[in-house]
Amino acid sequence: MSSQTPRIQFDVERQAGRAPMLTVEDGPDPVRWAEQNRESLRATVDEHGAVLVRGLNLRDPAEVADAFQRLVPSGLMPDREAFATRQPYLDGVYSSLTWPANQPMCMHHELSYALEFPGLMLFACLQAPQVGGVTGVADARAVLDAIPPDIVRRFESEGWLLARSYNQDIGASYEEAFGVSDRADVESYCRAHEIEFEWQPDGELRTRQRRPAVVRHPATGQRCWFNQIAFLSEWTIAPEVREYLVDVYGPDGLPFNTHFGDGEPIGEDIVALLNEIYEVHTLRTPWEMGDLMLVDNVRMAHSREAYEGPREILVGMAEPRNVFDLDPHAQDGAP
């Protein structure tokens, strides 16, 4: 029998269509509160998949970084392989991805295309937008159950494939994505992270990486829909933007696109269906300045809705996992 003291989770407020929320009274010191309540807060995330903490009144990046570090004393992860740029703050704390305010970031699991991804996401709001900008969450188990079985079977059997083209105009450059600039170092990174690569005559880098689309949760073993098939698809890009990119770079030169694991195109109808299912299962709570949110990155997908006015959400990533360690197809002994 384990001698460990059971972790006590918080009682959270559950409202239909809203993310689980914990309200902290009397405006405590947020860093001290994070340190004192780390275990209970983590148990609450384990129970609900995500929790929004209101009333901490986080005020600046240094305080956010300190609070994040107290919540995950094992340390925060560096940002690697992002498809758009982030502004680094300090101690593993970053800005949200650079993405047009008038275009939503559809539901996804952070870095689900990377060999190593964060098991836990941390968000802190230093400025809430005037309109929109919600970071929605959706339960990946419920999403999986809602997807037609024939689609799930194919993706579970084949996985999914992300194709990327790195150039100096759109999205993150390969220097920003991999953290190295020398070609030999880029190639070493790709080989170490199971990424196929090809240099183009003009120096552009194109990569392909095949990953599982369904994984088992590391704690519960439950199957979760875990990928960025819909978000990084050409069919989720605004039509006028997609047409421009295809015209300039060609259909194979899009900054990112997704395929079935065997390389075949994914139809617009499938991408639309996935986004419709995500919408049905999305929980939304508008940000308020000083909020903190923790999200289990395997169990819950997250999104960012379009917004108006300044918005500043800081991000931390923690609890690294290897995606193939959670691949049920491999665990079942399938070839």
Automatic annotation (TrEMBL):
Its cofactor is Fe(2+). Residues 26-315 form the TauD/TfdA-like domain. Keywords: Antibiotic biosynthesis, Dioxygenase, Iron, Oxidoreductase. The keyword Oxidoreductase applies. InterPro entries: AlphaKG_dependent_hydroxylases, TauD-like_sf, TauD/TfdA-like. This is TauD/TfdA family dioxygenase. PANTHER family: GAMMA-BUTYROBETAINE HYDROXYLASE-RELATED, TAUD_TFDA-LIKE DOMAIN-CONTAINING PROTEIN. GO terms for molecular function: dioxygenase activity.
